Amino acid sequence: MISESTICAIATSGTGAIAVIRVSGPATYEIVNSVFKPAKTEKDLLKLSANTIHFGTIHDGEDVVDEVLISLFRSPHSYTGEDVIEISCHGSAYIQQRIMELLISKGAEAARPGEFTQRAFLNGKMDLSQAEAVADLIAAESKASHDVAMHQIKGGFSKKIKDLRDKLLHFISLIELELDFSEEDVEFADRTELSLLVNEVKELVETLKNSFQLGNVIKSGVPVAIVGRPNVGKSTLLNALLEEDRAIVSEIEGTTRDSIEDTVVIDGITYRFIDTAGLRETADTIENLGIRRTYQKIGQASVVMLLVEASDGQELIFESLRAIREQLKDRKSPLILVINKSDIADPRVFDDNFLEKGEYICRISARNHQNIDQLRETLMNAVNIGHVKHQDVLITNVRHFNALNAASGSLERVLDGLSSALPQDLLAQDIREALHYLGEITGEVTTDEILGNIFRNFCIGK
Amino acid sequence: MISESTICAIATSGTGAIAVIRVSGPATYEIVNSVFKPAKTEKDLLKLSANTIHFGTIHDGEDVVDEVLISLFRSPHSYTGEDVIEISCHGSAYIQQRIMELLISKGAEAARPGEFTQRAFLNGKMDLSQAEAVADLIAAESKASHDVAMHQIKGGFSKKIKDLRDKLLHFISLIELELDFSEEDVEFADRTELSLLVNEVKELVETLKNSFQLGNVIKSGVPVAIVGRPNVGKSTLLNALLEEDRAIVSEIEGTTRDSIEDTVVIDGITYRFIDTAGLRETADTIENLGIRRTYQKIGQASVVMLLVEASDGQELIFESLRAIREQLKDRKSPLILVINKSDIADPRVFDDNFLEKGEYICRISARNHQNIDQLRETLMNAVNIGHVKHQDVLITNVRHFNALNAASGSLERVLDGLSSALPQDLLAQDIREALHYLGEITGEVTTDEILGNIFRNFCIGK
Predict the structure, then answer these.
(1) Interchain contact A53–B (C-beta under 8 A)
(2) I need a labelling partner for B116 at 20 to 30 A (CA). Which of A241, A371, B215, B289 fits?
(3) pLDDT in tens, B336-365
């Protein structure tokens, strides 16, 4: 499976203090040898020990491009399983580009997205679900999504699937042996044992399938819509939620928070606040209530927060609530009635007894950060995720979910076939199908198309 | 000089395939030991060889935060001269932040911008001008600015300054000895030799001072204004210039070009195109010519490109040219008359003989990329930078320029003093002053304020 080409890519992003350029493939040492001049050590990098670091310069003929550190790895003890060298250079765009150009001029190829991880998979360093988890890990923005990805990288459910699949493989070989002796009507595969095994596999498949909803929420975050008329305090509320979240990390300079704007992490789960800015801008007095409009945004939300003011009075609050209920009637999304400015007017304007099933109430002052913690808790309860333990086996990937669904159907047919004494060849076909779908998850069965789809979404350099 | 605190920072930027977190200081090994579990090797990192790489996990109690590689460096053979460990982790914001939090909880401090390089300076790993060049190197966007910074990192002019300063120090000690024996009227310091030395120092100082203008252009780029009436093809021209520049690198995926928008690199020099978008927007027919307006932007430009159309006719082109000449009359900025759409109308509408000194002409078709190369060359000639060799000693730093200016004044006074047989104590004072200013450049004389100003502008993690 070892590739013939040698690939290179910038593995870090943007410009910073340092950048790392990764080279992998059979010509790695030859290529880097031709552009790296060590400050002190042996010139031929191949003669140096693996897993060591060396200081020197990258040069383009007479031109010194940069002073760098290089890290040496030797096949098979590397990320890709191939010979790998990582060049740690100064992080200017110019230097990164020059070194890339130089490596390419010496015979390396610019790596495609995910190509390093794809090679790791092809060289047997990890199975396919582990490879997919690498991308999930890099994209993870919350503890829960990180833990799920980390669990999957370490083998997670794929080892279980593989073990059960191996047992199924054993049975199918017995059944296919029966086919060879079909005239003699022998039965090498114990049907009771097979039935037990298929049930066991099916149970795992169903558990994994059922975990997908939670897994998906953990991976992608819970979309939350805050609605209410203008000036009711939506921004202040969002800021209050964000602020508490950010306070935790504000002491650490240099950490990037750009990508997690307008998301709040509560107990490891990411809540994504959907922009309802459009609703704020109406100046029409009749429409001023805002919530009478058809909210497309609400359709995207898993939970809706209706924000009103304590001073709005019972009638207006009811009207708002009814309008939102109307919007949500075909969905089961929970609704949280948030009574803001509870420090100014009496928040008891609304009686909790008027709430329906799936509706929650919270009385806060966004400005004074009153009851924000309680709101966070209400949000968690409304979404009903509870505490997620990273030991839990969770499916987060649509591809896995689809494969599990298909495997479930095949396993169901196997069980039917066993109870109705289906001919061996038909039974074997159903088992083969289940094996195929299970193998797709771990990558024991794969096609270029599947691989292409998976690794296309990786970042370059991974 | 060794620091008591141990610092940590993310040395790469943003989220990518991998990120590198750097730890430096006396407790580096102790801190990383407490959060890193090696996969195979010896648990106590201190017992492992320096300059080696180890695979393992970063854990927070039972929680596995990430699978990482760590690179071990031991004082004094590290970037800072202290014990250093670099943690190469998956590049998610979440993981970077968790590891930073973890290191800080174990006693590390978040590094200030440039603190690693500041420690390298304080520990004698580099002088101050070399340290400053590290920031320049990371910021360098063109070959020329990169080469100047690289030259400075490798010692560049600071070694010369240091050598001459050491010789001056020798003389001042002799002169101060004379002061001790002032009653006896002895002369330990040979005045002819001293005069020769001071002249030599002054020559270097003047050369360096004079290189600042070019150095600054190389470092910051040449500001260019393209002016002309709307629809004359400014955007098309800019795109044509940019495109040729970008074609060189477009084959390499993953290189960051974001930060060099609207700049064109020609023969290693960066040209920054100043936004004159405002001029494009006028719809006033009288003002439609555009160039009659007072262009604030022109004041910022080192060279102005006046873009007209071949079909504009001689009269209109002259009018435009006169208006621009009016704007530029107090400045010596060169002017390039660019006659666009030369493929449609006759570009000979304007006679080259009408050009004045410092004015250039170029006939192009931006749309068809005709003569764009010639325009690039004209731009180079107009700015008159010529080929910059990276061996040239160039000053790019205002701080250095100011120190050289001050040193130049002191040296002048020393020479005056020598020719007028100034008393030893006054002569000594002038030499001391010169020594002080020269020492400021290399950091042999420094204050917390100077250091603070320098390293504040570094990025975090460097």
Answers:
(1) yes
(2) B215
(3) 999 999 888 888 888 888 888 889 999 999
Question: Which residues from chain A sit within 8 angstroms of residue B459, using beta carbons?
Answer: 16-17
Confidence of residue A2 (pLDDT cuts 50, 70, 90): low
End-to-end CA distance of chain A: 19
Alpha helices of B182-232 — where are they, by DSSP H?
A: 191-210, 212-220
DSSP state of B56: E
**The pLDDT of residue A272:** 85
Name which of B7, B8, B18 to mutate to probe chain A: the one with the most chain A Cβ atoms within 10 A of its Cβ: B18
| Tens of pLDDT, residues B399-454 | 999 999 999 999 999 999 999 989 889 999 999 999 999 999 999 988 888 898 89
Looking at domain B133-211+395-443, its CATH architecture is Up-down Bundle (1.20)
Cβ of B10 within 8 Å of Cβ of A254? The answer is yes
Taking an 8 Å cut-off on Cβ atoms, the answer to whether B95 and A134 are in contact is no
A40 touches A77 (CB < 8 A): no
pLDDT confidence of residue B51: 96
Residue extent(s) of CATH 3.30.1360.120 domains in chain B: 7-127
Class assignment of domain B7-127?
Answer: alpha beta
A252 near B CB under 8 A: yes
**For A330-359, what is the mean pLDDT?**
86
Residues of chain A with CATH 3.40.50.300: 217-383
Residues 6+ apart with CB under 8 A from A85: A22, A23, A28, A29, A32, A45, A70, A71, A72, A73
* Beta carbons within 8 Å of B394's beta carbon, 6+ residues apart: B148, B151, B211, B212, B214, B215, B218, B388
SS3 label, residue A7 = strand
> Chain A residue with minimal CA distance to B460?
A254
Note the Cα A175 to chain centre separation in Å: 39
Give the fold, CATH level 3, of A217-383: Rossmann fold (3.40.50)
Q: Which residues contact A34 (CB under 8 A, 6 or more apart)?
A: A106
Distance CA(A81)–CA(B461), nearest Å, equals 30
Q: What is the mean pLDDT of chain B?
A: 85
Among B449, B452, B408, B416, CA closest to B201: B408
The model's pLDDT over B294-319, given as tens digits with 9 standing for 90+, comes to 355 676 688 889 999 988 888 888 88
Chain centroid, CA B358 distance in Å: 28
Q: Is the pLDDT of residue B114 over 70?
A: yes
Size of interface A-B (CB pairs under 8 A): 215
Please report which confidence band the pLDDT of residue B88 belongs to, taking 50, 70 and 90 as the band edges: very high
Give which of A24, A98, A256, A457 to mutate to test B binding, by max B Cβ within 10 Å.
A256
Range(s) for CATH 1.20.120.430 in chain A? Answer: 133-211+395-443
B264 forms beta bridges with: B271
Round to whole Å and give the CA distance between B271 and A446: 50
- The stretches of A295-419 forming alpha helices (DSSP H) are 314-328, 372-383, 398-419
How far is the alpha carbon of A388 from chain B, nearest alpha carbon, in Å?
A: 13
Residue B385 pLDDT class (50, 70, 90 cuts): low
pTM attached to this predicted model: 0.78
What ipTM was estimated for this complex? Answer: 0.78
Q: Tens of pLDDT along A257-268?
A: 333 347 788 877
